């Protein structure tokens, strides 16, 4: 019997996910296979291949996969099925010609997201391998954070000079962004906000490794410092709010001294940023004090009337994922966009998926055998919640890096619950066998004693 998807020898799901992470984070997000449009990101293509691998395994396996009830897998498949119905409904009705290709691309991107969730949820074979992919995720995002520091120091994007045969830059005017005269690093992401969302969703995992990893703790503290610094320097209100949400969820169950140390660390990071990047304090302060006069906030709040006008045309099943084009309005709200494109059913499916992932990761904390395991479980809860909060300020689905990291965390949450529960059941079975063995031995001894008397 196998309790996970994938081969028993050779590369496993963690190997596939590691390659995916390398492609996702190392290849600049604006670089795509041009004929595939928004679905042409190399990471998206690899994720679609991962979905095919997962499907092939289930179609060809000759024995049951003993994983018990998997709420994340069920929620992901349920949401994907809903969005397939939404896609079929959109294609069956009259569509504006320039919405057809985005609808196709949107469906391909959804399949890619599902592929990462399902391979991670079903394929990670052991808790040790789960920690391996978590460690590689933190290191990868930490390296991208260090790249952001280099971009900030040199005032150059650098990644715009990368040329990869077969890929073209899908972003016009690709350059280092600025805000109030300050450079806004973006790493290998398309935009500083996407960069900020990638950093904030992985920040809790970086905290977990920096606090309780058994070895090389110094390395993860350095990476945590780089990630924390970039969350501030990216000068994104969305990133800071989501980082605060993730930190609060992460430290909620920590002892008092650990909470105080984390607070001191945040204060120290803020002091380093304010001393090394002149003007950043005033700019960040103005993000919140000047919110009433912020054009981006006005655009978000002014979008509700337009959004609900579109929703009213097809409130239950939507108009098709990816079909609400920027020419109609730029929402900067993933939930509102999904309500338009997927209707109430599509939005409900996503909310069920997010809730399932956060719930099972929280349950895994109760089965942890060490503080490090518990911290990883807490970090997955915090990362999923931070990513869910980010959807309210940013269209996560429109950007490959933010979507890829968010859905990987969802899949890892499901995998951690499966692996922790299977270990707990195995240990319970072993204990029952030991008790039964001792009872049998006692009965045999009683019989021998009775025979001798």
Name a few traits of the molecule.
two-stranded antiparallel ribbon, mainly alpha, 70% helix, two-stranded antiparallel sheet
Task: Explain what this protein looks like in three dimensions.
By secondary structure, the protein is mostly helical. It is 70% helix and 2% strand. It has 15 helices and 4 strands. The chain has helices spanning 13-26, 42-60, 71-92, 97-123, 127-154, 192-212, 217-233, 237-251, 256-276, 280-289, 295-301, 304-311, 334-366, 371-390, 400-452, and strands spanning 31-32, 168-169, 177-179, 182-184. It has a two-stranded antiparallel ribbon. A two-stranded antiparallel ribbon has the order 3-4. Helix 7 packs across helix 9. The chain is globular, with a radius of gyration of 24 Å. It starts with 12 loop residues before the first helix and ends with a helix. 47% of the residues are buried. The model has no long low-confidence stretch (mean pLDDT 87).
């Amino acid at each position: 019997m196998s309790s996970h998807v994938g081969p028993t020898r050779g590369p496993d799901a963690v190997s596939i996910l590691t390659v995916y992470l390398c492609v996702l984070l190392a290849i600049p997000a604006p670089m795509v296979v041009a004929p595939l449009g928004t679905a042409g990101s190399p990471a998206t293509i690899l994720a679609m291949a991962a979905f095919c691998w997962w499907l092939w395994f289930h179609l060809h396996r000759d024995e049951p996969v003993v994983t018990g009830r998997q709420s994340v897998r069920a929620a992901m498949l349920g949401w994907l099925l809903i969005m397939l119905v939404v896609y079929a409904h959109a294609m069956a009705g009259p569509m504006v010609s320039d919405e057809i290709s985005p609808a196709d691309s949107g469906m391909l991107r959804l399949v890619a997201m599902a592929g990462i969730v399902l391979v991670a949820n079903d394929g990670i074979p052991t808790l040790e391998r789960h920690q391996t992919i978590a460690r590689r995720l933190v290191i990868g995002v930490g390296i991208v954070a260090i790249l952001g520091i280099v971009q900030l120091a040199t005032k150059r994007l650098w990644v715009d000079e990368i040329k990869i045969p077969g890929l073209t830059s899908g972003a016009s005017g690709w350059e280092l962004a600025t805000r109030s005269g300050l450079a806004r690093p973006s790493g290998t992401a398309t935009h500083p906000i996407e960069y900020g969302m990638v950093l904030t969703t992985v920040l809790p995992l970086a905290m977990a490794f920096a606090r309780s990893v058994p070895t090389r703790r110094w390395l993860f503290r350095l990476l945590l410092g780089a990630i924390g610094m970039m969350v501030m320097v990216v000068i994104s209100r969305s990133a800071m709010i989501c980082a605060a949400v993730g930190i609060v969820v992460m430290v909620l169950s920590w002892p008092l001294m650990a909470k105080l140390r984390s607070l001191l660390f945040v204060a120290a990071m803020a002091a380093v940023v304010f001393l090394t990047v002149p003007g950043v304090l005033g700019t960040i302060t103005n993000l919140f004090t000047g919110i009433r006069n912020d054009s981006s906030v006005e655009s978000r709040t002014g979008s509700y009337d337009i959004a609900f006008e579109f929703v009213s045309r097809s409130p239950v099943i939507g108009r098709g994922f990816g079909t609400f084009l920027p020419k109609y309005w730029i929402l900067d709200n993933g939930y509102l966009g999904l309500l338009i494109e997927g209707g109430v059913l599509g939005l409900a499916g996503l909310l069920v998926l997010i809730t399932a992932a956060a719930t099972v990761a929280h349950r895994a904390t109760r089965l942890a055998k060490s503080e490090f395991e518990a911290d990883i479980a807490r970090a997955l809860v915090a990362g999923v919640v931070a990513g869910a909060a980010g959807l309210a300020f940013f269209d996560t689905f429109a950007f490959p890096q933010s979507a890829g990291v968010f859905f990987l965390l969802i899949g890892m949450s499901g995998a951690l619950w499966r692996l922790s529960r299977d270990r707990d059941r195995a240990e319970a079975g072993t204990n029952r066998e030991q008790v039964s063995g001792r009872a049998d031995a006692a009965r045999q001894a009683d019989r021998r004693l009775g025979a001798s008397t």
